[in-house]
C-alpha cells in the first residue's frame, strides 16, 4: 500500500491496545495513529507490510506489567507459552513450538534484541524494561531473520540514548504476595554528539506454593537487571552501544501430583527450595552502526555478544519420597556479526542485501538423582502391598527375582558440549509495479555447522527405574552440517489509500542437531547389561533439519477516518521433518516427527467509537496436526496420524477496553482486559490424551495521569483467581495417576506510581 501518513504520526511503534496505555490516540484529531515497525529491516507502517504482526510499545509494557515474552504471549492471540514462568518454557506461535531441556533442539520462534539473536531458551526469556517496542511476527521469517524463525519471530527494541536531552523516569509498584517492582532511567547528554542512558530494574514476588512436606514456601521471584547504552551521532553516522546484565530467580515450574487431599497452591516434595528453583544470569553487548553512504544508500552493522548460565531443579516424581530429582546446569556464549547494504531511491525499486555469521559455545550437565528403594516402595504401596520395602522384594513379588536387589541411591548424568557456527547471505527487493501493486521478493542462504560431544554416566546391570542401560567412559563426538535456501514472495494490492490486500508465500528453516540423552547403539548390544557405548560402537543420535512453507492471504484496512482499523489473515503451512520433543522415561527426546500441516485465521480490530472509548479485540484460531508422521517416531512417542500437536491452543482471544475522562490538569481512566486460551494437549504428549484445560484471565486498572508527568494506577490481575494446571505429564511412576506442571500466578492487586522528568 502506498499509505497516507497523518500529520501527527508517532515516531515509535504503538501497541495494539488502548489509547491511554499506548499513547495511540491523537485527542485533537480523534483518530488512531500510525504504527511504525522495522520488521522488514526498515521503518514502515505496520499497515503497509504483508506480515501478520502485533506491536507493543514501552508504555503499554510498563502499564500492563508485561515484563517478559511469556507474559506478552498471553495478550497476543495465536501466541502462547507453557506457563508464565521459567527459562525452560518455549514460545508457541500458530501451534508450533519445539524446545528441549538439553542442548538438542532450539525454539522455532526466534527472539531478538536490537537485531541480535538471543539464543536458546535459557538466555532468551529476559526482562522487558526501558523498552521502545516489541514486534511479534507470525509465520516463518526465514529470509528476514534466518534460522530458528520457522514459526515466527519476536523482535525487541530497547530505548536508545537521546542526544541533547536530560530526562529520566522512576516507576515504583507494590502489591499483594510481596509484589515490588521499581525501574529507574536516566538519559544524560555528554557532548553535542554523545549521550548515555542508564536503566535499572528490580522485581520481587513471594512464592505462592507451600511445600507441605518441608513447610517452606517456594516460587519466589527475584530479578535484578541493568542496561547502559550510549548513542553517538553525526550527520552521516549513528552508533548505538548497549550493555545489559540480569540476575534472576524465576518462579519455579513445580511438578505436582494430582492429590485431592492438598490445596491447589500446595505441593508435596522432599526437596528443599534450594533445589526446586530456576535461577540464572544473562548478559549481553551489542553495537549497531548506521552509516549514510549517500542520499540513497546506507550501511548497517550489527555486532552482538550474549551469554547465560542457569540452574534448574525439579522434583520429578512430585511426592514426599526422596525419589527423583532432575537438575540442569547450562552455560552459553554467543557471538554474531551482520552487515546490510540498503538502497531506497526515488525509483520504483528498493532493496537490501546482507551477510551474517555467528558462533555459539554451549555446555550442559544434566543430572538425574533417585533412590530406587524409595521409588520401589512407593510403587509397592500403589499396588496394595505395603510390606514390600525395596526393589529386590518387588522383583520377587513380580516374578523377576533374577534382576537382583535394589541398588539404592543412583546418579545418572549427561555431560554435553556443543560448538556451533554458521553464516548466511540474504537479499530483499521491493518493486512498485504500479501505484497500486507492489511485489516483494527475498531469499536467504544459510549454512550451519555443529560439533557435539556427549558423555553419559549411567551404568548398572540391575536397573529398575528409567535410566540409560549404557554409559560412556569417554565422550562420543560427531560433526554435521546443514544448509538451506529460504525465500519469500509477496504481493501487495492497494484498493485505495485505506485498504491493502496481500498474498505471501514464505519458507523457514531450522538446523538439525544431536540428542542430549542417548546414543544410537549397535543391534548387538544387550539392553539388560552394563555397556560402555564408547567401546561398543555407540554413535550420537541426531535429527535432521526442519523446513516449512507458509501460504497466507490477508487484508489491512482503515475505516471512518482511521477511527477503526480492521486486519485479518488466513494461512496454511506445511512442515517437512518437523523437530519434535517427547518424554521418554524421565528424559526429553527430540526426533523428526515427519510432515505437519496447519491452518488458521486471525482477526485484529482497533476502534475509537468515541473520543473517550478505545477498544482492541484480537481473535485467533489455529489447527495443526500430524498429517504424515514417521512410524518410528509414533512407536516411541505414541503419536497417531491426524493427531493434534502439543501446545496447539486452538482458539484464543484478547480484549482491552479503556474509558478516559479528559480533565484540565490531566486525565483519569479505567481499563478492562480479558484474555482467553483454549484447552491444549500437554507438552511432550503426542498421544493427544493429556489435556491442559482452557484458561482465561481478567485484569482491571484505574488511574490518574497528570499533565505534570506523574501518574498513579490501582490494578488487579487475574481478578477471578483462575487456576491453570499446566502440563499433565505421562510419567509412569505408579505413585499417582498423573502429574501436572503448575505455576500460574494467583489473583493479585496493587498500586503503581510513576514520575517522569
UniProtKB/TrEMBL annotation:
- Annotated InterPro entries: Beta-barrel_TonB, Beta-barrel_TonB_sf, Plug_dom, TonB-dep_rcpt-like
Q: Does the keyword Transcription apply?
A: no
One GO CC term on file: cell outer membrane
- Subcellular location, principal: membrane
Member of which family?
Belongs to the TonB-dependent receptor family.
SUPFAM superfamilies cross-referenced by the UniProt entry: Porins (SSF56935)
**A GO biological process this protein is involved in?**
iron ion transport
Name the chain's protein.
Answer: TonB-dependent receptor
Q: Which domain of life is it from?
A: Bacteria
Q: Which residues belong to any copy of the TonB-dependent receptor-like beta-barrel domain?
A: 238-719
Any Pfam family hit: Plug
> Which organism is this entry from?
Dasania phycosphaerae
The record places domain TonB-dependent receptor plug at 47-153
- What are the subcellular locations of this protein? Cell outer membrane
The membrane-topology field of this record reads: Multi-pass membrane protein
Keywords in alphabetical order: Cell outer membrane, Ion transport, Iron, Iron transport, Membrane, Receptor, TonB box, Transmembrane, Transmembrane beta strand, Transport
Amino acid at each position: 500500500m502506498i499509505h497516507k501518513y497523518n500529520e501527527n504520526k508517532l515516531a515509535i511503534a504503538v501497541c495494539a491496545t488502548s489509547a491511554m496505555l499506548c499513547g495511540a490516540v491523537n485527542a485533537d484529531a480523534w483518530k488512531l495513529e500510525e504504527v511504525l515497525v522495522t520488521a522488514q529491516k526498515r521503518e514502515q507502517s505496520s499497515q503497509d507490510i504483508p506480515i501478520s504482526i502485533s506491536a507493543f510499545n514501552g508504555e503499554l509494557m510498563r502499564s500492563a506489567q508485561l515484563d517478559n515474552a511469556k507474559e506478552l504471549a498471553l495478550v497476543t492471540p495465536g501466541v502462547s507459552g507453557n506457563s508464565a514462568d521459567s527459562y525452560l518454557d518455549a514460545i508457541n506461535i500458530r501451534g508450533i513450538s519445539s524446545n528441549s531441556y538439553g542442548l538438542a533442539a532450539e525454539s522455532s520462534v526466534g527472539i531478538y534484541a536490537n537485531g541480535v539473536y538471543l539464543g536458546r531458551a535459557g538466555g532468551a526469556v529476559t526482562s522487558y524494561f526501558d523498552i521502545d517496542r516489541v514486534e511479534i511476527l507470525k509465520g516463518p521469517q526465514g529470509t528476514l531473520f534466518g534460522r530458528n524463525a520457522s514459526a515466527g519471530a519476536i523482535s525487541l527494541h530497547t530505548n536508545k540514548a537521546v542526544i541533547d536531552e536530560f530526562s529520566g523516569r522512576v516507576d515504583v509498584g507494590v502489591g499483594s504476595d510481596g509484589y515490588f517492582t521499581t525501574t529507574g532511567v536516566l538519559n544524560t547528554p555528554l557532548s553535542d554528539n554523545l549521550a548515555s542512558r542508564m536503566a535499572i530494574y528490580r522485581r520481587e514476588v513471594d512464592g505462592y506454593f507451600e511445600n507441605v512436606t518441608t513447610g517452606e514456601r517456594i516460587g519466589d521471584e527475584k530479578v535484578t537487571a541493568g542496561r547502559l547504552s550510549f548513542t553517538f551521532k553525526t550527520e552521516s553516522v549513528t552508533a548505538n552501544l548497549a550493555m545489559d546484565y540480569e540476575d534472576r530467580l524465576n518462579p519455579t515450574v513445580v511438578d505436582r501430583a494430582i492429590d485431592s487431599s492438598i490445596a491447589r497452591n500446595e505441593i508435596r516434595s522432599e526437596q528443599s527450595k534450594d533445589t526446586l528453583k530456576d535461577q540464572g544470569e544473562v548478559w549481553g553487548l551489542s553495537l549497531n552502526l548506521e552509516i549514510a553512504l549517500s542520499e540513497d544508500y546506507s550501511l548497517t552493522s550489527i555486532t552482538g555478544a550474549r551469554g547465560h548460565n542457569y540452574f534448574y531443579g525439579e522434583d520429578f516424581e512430585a511426592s514426599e519420597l526422596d525419589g527423583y530429582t532432575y537438575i540442569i546446569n547450562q552455560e552459553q556464549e554467543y557471538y554474531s556479526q551482520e552487515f546490510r547494504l540498503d538502497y531506497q531511491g526515488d525509483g520504483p525499486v528498493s532493496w537490501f542485501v546482507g551477510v551474517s555469521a555467528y558462533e555459539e559455545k554451549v555446555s550442559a550437565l544434566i543430572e538425574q538423582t533417585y533412590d530406587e528403594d524409595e521409588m520401589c516402595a512407593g510403587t509397592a504401596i500403589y499396588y496394595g502391598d505395603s510390606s514390600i520395602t525395596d526393589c529386590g522384594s518387588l522383583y520377587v513379588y513380580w516374578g523377576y527375582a533374577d534382576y537382583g536387589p535394589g541398588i539404592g541411591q543412583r546418579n545418572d548424568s549427561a555431560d554435553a558440549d556443543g560448538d556451533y557456527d554458521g553464516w548466511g547471505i540474504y537479499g530483499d527487493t521491493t518493486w512498485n509495479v504500479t501505484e497500486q501493486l507492489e511485489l516483494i521478493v527475498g531469499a536467504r542462504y544459510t549454512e550451519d555447522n555443529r560439533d557435539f560431544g556427549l558423555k553419559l554416566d549411567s551404568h548398572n546391570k540391575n536397573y529398575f527405574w528409567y535410566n540409560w542401560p549404557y554409559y560412556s567412559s569417554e565422550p562420543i563426538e560427531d560433526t554435521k552440517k546443514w544448509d538451506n535456501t529460504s525465500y519469500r514472495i509477496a504481493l501487495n494490492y492497494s484498493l485505495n489509500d485505506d485498504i491493502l490486500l496481500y498474498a505471501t508465500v514464505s519458507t523457514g528453516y531450522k538446523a538439525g542437531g544431536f540428542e542430549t540423552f542417548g546414543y544410537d547403539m549397535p543391534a548387538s548390544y544387550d539392553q539388560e547389561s552394563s555397556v560402555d557405548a564408547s567401546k561398543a560402537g555407540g554413535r550420537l543420535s541426531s535429527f535432521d533439519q526442519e523446513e516449512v512453507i507458509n501460504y497466507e492471504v490477508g487484508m489491512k484496512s482503515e475505516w471512518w477516518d482511521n477511527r477503526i482499523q480492521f486486519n485479518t489473515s488466513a494461512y496454511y503451512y506445511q512442515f517437512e521433518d518437523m523437530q519434535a520433543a517427547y518424554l521418554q522415561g524421565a528424559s526429553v527426546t527430540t526426533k523428526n516427527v515427519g510432515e505437519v500441516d496447519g491452518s488458521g485465521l486471525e482477526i485484529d480490530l482497533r476502534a475509537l467509537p468515541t473520543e473517550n472509548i478505545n477498544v482492541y479485540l484480537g481473535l485467533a484460531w489455529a489447527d495443526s496436526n500430524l498429517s504424515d508422521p514417521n512410524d518410528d517416531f509414533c512407536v516411541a512417542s505414541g503419536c497417531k496420524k491426524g493427531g493434534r500437536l502439543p501446545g496447539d491452543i486452538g482458539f484464543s482471544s484478547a480484549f482491552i477496553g479503556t474509558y478516559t475522562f479528559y480533565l484540565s490538569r490531566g486525565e483519569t481512566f479505567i481499563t478492562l482486559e480479558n484474555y482467553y486460551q483454549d484447552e491444549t494437549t500437554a507438552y511432550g504428549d503426542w498421544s493427544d490424551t493429556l489435556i491442559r484445560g482452557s484458561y482465561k484471565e481478567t485484569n482491571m486498572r484505574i488511574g490518574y495521569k497528570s499533565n505534570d508527568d506523574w501518574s498513579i494506577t490501582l490494578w488487579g490481575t487475574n481478578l477471578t483467581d483462575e487456576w491453570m494446571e499446566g502440563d499433565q505429564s505421562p510419567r509412569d511412576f505408579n505413585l499417582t495417576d498423573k502429574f501436572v506442571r503448575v505455576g500460574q500466578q494467583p489473583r493479585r492487586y496493587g498500586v503503581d506510581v510513576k514520575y517522569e522528568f
